[in-house]
Amino acid sequence: MLFRIARSKDGETISHYDQYKVEVKEGMTVLDALFQIQDKMDPSLSFRYSCRGAVCGSCAMLIDKIPRLACKTQLSTLKRDDKKNEMNLEPFPALVEAPNGWSPSDEVLVEPLPNLPLLKDLVVDMCRFYETLEKLKLWIDIEKGTEYRNQSPEERKRIDRLVNCIMCALCYGSCPINAENEDYLGPAALAKSWRFFDDSRTPNPDRFLKDAKGESGAPLCELIMNCVRVCPKGVAPGGAIRKIKEAE
Amino acid sequence: MTLKHDVLVIGAGLSGLRAAIELAEDTDVAVITKVHPLRSHSVAAQGGINAALSKDDSWEQHAFDTIKGSDYLADQDIVETLTKRAPQTVIENERWGTAFSRTEDGELAQRPFGGAMYPRTCYAADKTGHNLLHTTYEQAMRKGIKFYEEWYVTSLVREDERICGLTALEISTGEIHGFVAKAIIIATGGFGRVYGKSTNSLINTGDGCALALRIGASLKDMEFVQFHPTTLYGSNILITEGARGEGGHLLNSEDERFMERYAPEQMELAPRDIVARSIRKEIEKGRGIEDEYVHLDIRHLGEEKIKSRLPGIREICRNFAGIDPIDEPIPVQPGQHYSMGGIHCDGTGATSISGLFSVGETSCMSVHGANRLGGNSLLETLVFGPIVAQAALEYIENASFADSSCVEDIAFRDRSKLQAMVVRSEGESPNILRKEMKKTMDNLVGVYRSQEDLEEALRTIRNLRERFEKISIGPTDIRFNYSLIRTLELENMLLLAEIITMGALMRRESRGAHWRSDYPERDDSEFLKHSLFTLMESGAIKTEYIDVTLGKFEVKERKY
Ligand SMILES: Cc1cc2nc3c(=O)[nH]c(=O)nc-3n(C[C@H](O)[C@H](O)[C@H](O)COP(=O)(O)OP(=O)(O)OC[C@H]3O[C@@H](n4cnc5c(N)ncnc54)[C@H](O)[C@@H]3O)c2cc1C
Ligand code: SF4
Ligand code: FES
After folding, report:
1. Which residues contact B51 (CB under 8 A, 6 or more apart)?
2. Do A163 and B316 touch (CB under 8 A)?
3. B244 is catalytic
4. Contact partners, residue A204, CB within 8 Å, separation at least 6
5. What is the pTM of this model?
6. pLDDT digits (tens, 9 = 90+) for B215-244
7. Among A7, A36, A56, A152, which would you mutate to test the B interface (most chain B Cβ atoms within 10 Å of its Cβ)?
8. Which of A207, B126, B177, B231 is the most interior residue, by most CB within 10 Å?
9. What's the pLDDT at A84?
10. CA pair distance A189, A216, nearest whole angstrom
11. Ligand 3 centroid to residue B534 C-alpha, Å
12. Is B481 on the interface with A (CB under 8 A)?
């Protein structure tokens, strides 16, 4: 299988693309392919990884112009003619501008996740994304006590999807608003705000809603829902943002 | 540039974060981690965390199960601490916000887990580690803890009998910096990736054990490696014990619940080592499927239960094996899962080097002995994180900073070593050595072991260590040089592989996870002891045995 991979030794912009021929084995993922390249063809290729099981959120990147986790993307699902690969994402430049000579029908294109500064090859600077967690103070202000709190299964269910977020930033990298506006807090942080607001146990839930409604928050969202389509964990951040917009 | 902090924690998994949170208010603490904290392996833990919360359960019962499970090699005083503190530890994390699964009346739900006589495993669906780690990291953010993210620790530095600092490679720049510290806590997790078939994250390479060993600290019980019975055939991603806890059946090629033969009472919920060996036996006897795996069948639990209790498992099966466990059985085989051994330390994490502590999977106190029970290791990270932090705090009260020249010398040495490594243009690729090491460990130092196999493994590993001196990484860049990082990890793993194999060879008995086909009995007269490994200045490894701390639980035959 042919791979065309974005390269950037010094960061900031993609300097060129390198092509590699990967030997495919059954069950192989894009992450496996990247390791094969690093091990056997080009040790200078840089990319992040850790769990290889779609739980740690390290390996978000743009694969055939769709933001996805490299470890969760089976090679067998790529280059198929069926519609499964189409996500109907609202386009913005990084999702549509293809490098010269790329042949979409038989070449896997791997590029860094958009909307974050490029550091090297497939490694992007996640700081801006992580900082949103601190800006919104996305943690519980602990109250003193020695007992656990009760929570009914129904109450727990309300936050079920939201607590599954692995902070991979795929939503951030897929969002046309984040592409244009660096200040926009983005889908993951807002969804997490709603997770705390809607958790029956949270001591002062209103602060989460108030901050999420702030000027860099939910008001900037145009409910485009790319985030919902790319999220590898079914978190549906756009749904949470809609609720934030609607909540009083 | 030399950096300075009172206490340095290496590792931002659950144990490192929990220790740092404890220290943040009282001292200048910083955490160094080779990946962003949320990418630490703790995030992958699925099944749950144990605590005797119910009125019908007790810490004594939890302790008994743990000690029996450990095949009596756990130190009973330390198990007592673990189990006594379990309820408050789980409650603390609940109060921090972890979204534990609930019973109908809103209590913490608890599921049965292997080797436990009572359902005492609290869980957040089958994403317990994910929920605990994200919550604990939130609290670390709240405390404003200083992180050095994506820094790879290359060496520890000692001055006489005490620790004085470390060196670390800043991955984003490729530069090595020295750090001076009064105390260092190693919380670097396990070394599962010494094996090929492993449930562990790719970053679990045992760096902390190798770092500590190189400056004279000892490692303990390294031969005890847990093989999880049910890892997904192919990728070896874990299929949690929770799947059996919820009622899943193990079936051989004849659709027979073969656990009846090996553990008629506990069946699928016998401890891991027993289930893993049973599966291997079935495969050896020709009752495996494709001679490689057996089936874990959860279809009878029904769609609803699978979706609510085991959603992560369903996701894994669909993504990585292309099957839906609602309709099809899951192909599983044993794979490396947990490192019981680790850095030799006491119940406060203190090692033989003053100011050097260890906690979590990298440490060996030992709470798990020869075999860890599921749900006890997440517990270990959160119970001992604060205990070890307190011990470090006490230690630094009377400790001073060493002169920075000691770390600068080592930083200089490390820079030269790395420089030489990256410029060498001729030689074998580290990739070849890595593959050979993993294959050797999988095949010869696995679930079943024998003198002959182990001797062969030892020869191979020693040969690989020699060949490592002459490898060539190939042309790389200075920044984000992951080929270099992976080569340094390989160097660490080769050292540990040798020690694991030596330990397995030495221990001529079968106990817990360590099973010798040529010595199938447990031998308490000779081996009711911890093994200890120390690197001598000559480069040779000294081995010895030390006593286990026994207590009120009498050593008995371990039957299920
Ligand atoms: C798939 C799976 C499922 C599991 N499920 C359960 C379960 O249900 N219940 C249970 O009790 N246990 C479970 N375990 C075990 C449990 O997850 C681990 O034992 C525990 O999370 C270890 O935590 P830790 O803090 O010690 O280390 P880790 O979480 O592994 O963290 C290690 C840290 O050290 C850092 N580090 C390592 N080397 C370096 C270096 N050279 N320089 C800088 N930083 C470094 C890493 O960046 C990381 O932050 C499971 C394990 C696996 C593999
Ligand atoms: S919401 Fe989904 S896509 Fe966004 S960070 Fe979380 S898991 Fe990733
Ligand atoms: S490597 Fe962990 S999500 Fe891909």
Report:
1. B62, B86, B87, B89, B90, B120, B122, B379
2. no
3. yes
4. A141
5. 0.96
6. 999 999 999 999 999 999 999 999 988 899
7. A56
8. B126
9. 55
10. 11
11. 35
12. yes
Give the model's pLDDT for residue A85: 57
Collect all residues with Cβ–Cβ distance below 8 Å to B448 and sequence separation of at least 6.
Answer: B277, B280, B515, B517
**Ligand 2 geometric centre to CA of A232 (Å):** 7
Q: CA B60, CA B64: separation in Å to the nearest integer?
A: 6
> How far, in Å, CA of B452 to CA of B440, rounded?
13
Neighbour-count burial for B331-351, b at 16+ CB within 10 Å, e otherwise: bbbbbbbbbbbbbbbbbbbbb
- Sign of the CA dihedral with B48 first, then B111, A199, and B23 last: negative
Could you tell me if B51 and B123 are in contact, meaning their C-beta atoms sit under 8 angstroms apart?
no
Q: Does domain A2-123 have CATH number 3.30.565.10?
A: no
Domain-wise residue ranges, chain A: 2-123, 126-246
Nearest CB partner across the interface for A53, out of B90, B237, B477? B237
Q: What is the pLDDT of residues B361-413, one digit of tens each?
A: 999 999 999 999 999 999 999 999 999 999 999 999 999 999 999 999 999 99
Amino acid at B185: I
Which of B120, B228, B295, B368 is catalytic? The answer is B228
CB atoms within 10 A of CB B106: 17
Please work out whether the CB of residue A67 comes within 6 Å of at least one atom of ligand 2. no
Which CATH architecture describes the domain A126-246? Orthogonal Bundle (1.10)
In the residue annotation, B130 being an active-site residue is answered as no
Helix axis angle, A127-135 relative to B128-142, nearest 10°?
A: 70
Do B320 and A53 count as a contact with CB atoms less than 8 A apart?
yes
Ligand 3 center–CA B139 separation, angstroms? 23
How does pLDDT run across B181-192, given as a tens digit for each residue?
999 999 999 999
What interface predicted TM-score (ipTM) does this complex get?
0.97
Q: Is the Cα torsion angle B341, B342, B343, B349 positive or negative in sign?
A: negative
Residue B153 Cβ contacting ligand 1 at under 6 Å: yes
Identify the closest residue of chain B to A134 by CA–CA distance: B141
Is the link from the previous residue into B405 a cis peptide, with omega within 30 of 0? Answer: no
pLDDT in tens, A17-34: 999 999 999 889 999 999
A16 CB within 8 Å of a chain B CB: no
A residues 201-240 near B, CB within 8 Å? 201-202
Question: Which among B244, B277, B337, B522 is annotated as catalytic?
Answer: B244
Q: What ranges make up the beta strands (E) of B268-347?
A: 294-297, 330-339, 342-344
Cα of B543 from ligand 1 centre, angstroms: 27
User: What is the set of domains in chain B, with CATH numbers?
Assistant: 228-334 (3.90.700.10), 424-547 (1.20.58.100)
Of B62, B61, B58, the C-alpha closest to B50 is B62
- A144 Cβ under 8 Å from any chain B Cβ: no
Residue keyed to tokens 């020695």? A146
Q: Do residues B91 and B158 touch, judged by C-beta distance below 8 A? A: no
- Return the closest-CA partner of residue B380 out of B75, B152, B7, B101: B75
Q: Is the Cβ–Cβ distance between A61 and A5 less than 8 Å?
A: no
**Which residues of chain B have a CB within 8 Å of the CB of A166?**
38, 43, 130
CB contact under 8 A, B237 and A50: no
Q: How far apart are the first and last CA of chain A?
A: 53
Q: Are B238 and B227 in contact (CB under 8 A)?
A: no
For A150, the closest of B91, B107, B319 (CB atoms) is B107
Query: Is B139 within 8 Å of chain A by CB?
Result: yes
